[in-house]
Amino acid sequence: MKFDRINMTVQGQKTGEARLTAYLLDPVSVSPQKKRPLVIVVPGGGYQRCSDREREPVAMKFLAMGCHACVLDYSVSPNRFPVALRELALAIATVRDHAEDWYVDPESVLVCGFSAGGHLACSIGTFWNRAVTYEGIGRTAEEVRPSGLILCYPVITAGEHCHEGSFEELLGEDAMPELRQAVSLELRVTDQMPPVFLWHTVTDDTVPVESSLLLAVAMQRNHVNFEMHIYPSGCHGLSLAAEETAGDQDYLVEPGCQSWVLLVQSWIENQRWKKR
Length: 276
Fold this sequence. Notes:
The mean pLDDT is 92. By secondary structure, this protein is α/β, with parallel strands linked by helices. Helix 2 packs across helix 4. Helix content is 32%, strand content 20%. It contains eleven helices and eight strands. The chain starts with a strand and ends in a 6-residue tail after the last helix.
């Protein structure tokens, strides 16, 4: 496995600097030229921080699936929208810039986001073809387009079932209602959204499951290709739902939710985004 770390600064950004850490599988003798999917892991943390439990341990799981992986440490509060969105867009474009030397399939660059990182991942899925995203970093829409999204208990709506803290950090406490509506992502879904894998738990008392249900309804109405799994129990922030990401917090071990890793592996293997 090779290891690369890239610091990325969005032009015109006043504060903060994103960091993209790449974990790359070495070419093997049986297929030395094989181009693999790459998954950019976007940790949660309420737009206040980037959670360690949703960073490298998740990247290692994608490596075990035969995918390359990156972790994006994006700018959080006091940075405001669209700084982190542009950083993620730049990360996608950067991966495509390195597609040849990293042995990455440029048509299989996916984003996996958790909680507020799920909001950021879903944002690039709904804003990739809007000027606010790509013009600010001097790229084209196609360069920043994600091939697929993996959304894990994501923050989605700024409406009735919102996680208020995430939106306060993303927009500021005095954000205009029009701006809140603009980043309420169930309202931004179109048929140009890439394929989505989505999971949540019914008993999440931090980001209500209704957030994901609202997104699913919007995706269905717009004919977006998606797969959704709702688990009956489990708290917020499970990550892998296993001991390796729980530390000394036993409540973060939820055997019933651990299957999302196998399910997303099957989803990645069976997707046909190249033909969309």
